Structures are given as C-alpha cells and as structure tokens.
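Dear colleagues,

As part of the handover before I leave the project, I'm documenting each prediction I ran so the next person doesn't have to rerun anything. This entry is a single chain, and its sequence is reproduced below.
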Amino acid sequence: MKREIITTNDGSSSIFLPEWNESYHSKFGAIQEAKHVFIKNGLDLFHKEDSISILEIGFGTGLNAFITLLEAEKRKQKTNYVGVEAYPVSLEEIKLLNYPNQLEAMEKNDLFIKMHQTDWEMEHLISNYFIIKKREQFFNTITDENAFDLIYFDVFGFRVQPELWTEEIFQKMFNALNPEGILVTYACRTVIKNAMLAAGFTVEKLPGAPGKREMLRAKKV
C-alpha cells in the first residue's frame, strides 16, 4: 500500500495512506495527539512509580515510543516497552520524520534511529531508563497475560479496520494488563466502548486531543 510523508497541523510528521484516506496520526497534530492521549491521560497516571511496563498496539512510526523514552529519561523511570506492529515502517521512511526536531530533542536523534534499527523480537537497552522489544505480529495473535501496566492502543481507525476494535481484541488487551492496568486510545465510539465493557473493562470518556471531541480510557479492575 502506498505511503506518503505528510506534515500535520502542529508541524510534526505523519504517514498518509491514500488508498484508505487514513493517516498514522491526527492531521490536527501528531505530537500533540500523542502527548494528550498517551502521556497526559495514560503515562502520567504512573508518574510516582519507579518502573512501568508498556504495550503499544500499533508501533508505527515510533512516535509514542520516542516521547515515552524522553519522559523516562526526564522522570528517571525505568520503562519496559513492547511495540507490536504487523507492517513495520521502513528505516528510509523513519529518517524522513521530524520528531526529534519538533520535540526539541535533537540530542536524542541517535536514540530515535537506534530504536528503529534494533532487531525485532529481541529486547534492547536504548538508554539507561528505556528498554524496548518490537514484535512483528498481528494483533489477534497476542497472548500476553498480566504483563503490562499500561497499553497505548493506537491502531488505524474503526472506519478502515473495524476488526481491530472488537470485543475479541479488547479481551486480549484485558488479559495482557496487570490488575488495575490502564488502556488509552484516541478513539471514542459507542461500539468501541461497548466492546471494552464486554471484555471486562470499566470505561470513561475524556476530552479528546485538539480536533477531536472525546477519547476513551479503560481500566482493568
């Protein structure tokens, strides 16, 4: 499928799929969406913890992972990060993205590239506080149990891939989380909320990132 590098409204890059009329991030702003959904309404809930284990569903461009790495360094919080992706982005495409510059973190650009250059299916120490393991797999094959504190659920939208927003998928997410674990996603549809509830989550609506009215946060209780 053809992929194009685009610039979103906050100046940060994303990848656009013309065939689907779908982008990897919000066109209103890739970085501001990532910070709002996954950091402010996800990671920040664990700011007092010495360590955290995160599962990202839809590793994509690595934006969420890179921002989390920056936060781990700033907070001195040991972070074990697993990114699952069925269709990895090429290193050539990654080098066209402007995240280190837009995040005013050019001194960490080598870590952003290193994160993408590391072998899949293996753990890698990227920095003193950030360990990553990238897994190339389809989301419906995930079988982790009681392994993560936080899930970044960042797959393509319901309009183009409704099969990724089902009770079956959210049951796998529920199983993968530790008790009291949290899942956050940019999306907010009644059908998605109902799928989360059916999987056993308690669910709340929160204000969405700029350009989007609401988002969802689910908790395993």
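The chain has a mean pLDDT of 97. Residues 29-219 form a domain with the Rossmann fold fold (CATH 3.40.50.150).

All the best with the project,
I.
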